[in-house]
Amino acid sequence: MTGRRTVMVDTRLRHRERTRQESRARGTMAIWRWARWAALFLAVGWALNSVVKLVEGAQGRELWWPLLSTVIWAAVTVHGFATYRRIRTRTLPALTRRTAA
């Protein structure tokens, strides 16, 4: 009888852990759903800012921050889109045992 009870408890614990992981994955996905677009908007904004300053004749010292910000926000954008896709196509289907939507 003890062995059967242990299996049931283990099954419940695994299910609870899978539910926690799924909940965390869905939360991360919800954050990246809008944050990736915000990061893209900021990356484009900083890139346009750099171009405008170049056209206005800005020197190299004045351009380091807009260029650095463009690179940072572009990296955040790429990371956001990749993370969102990975969670949607691999992580959630593995946790829920359903096919990717």
TrEMBL record:
The chain crosses the membrane at residues 63-82. Keywords: Membrane, Transmembrane, Transmembrane helix. The keyword Transmembrane applies. The keyword Membrane applies. This is Integral membrane protein. It comes from Streptomyces lividans TK24.
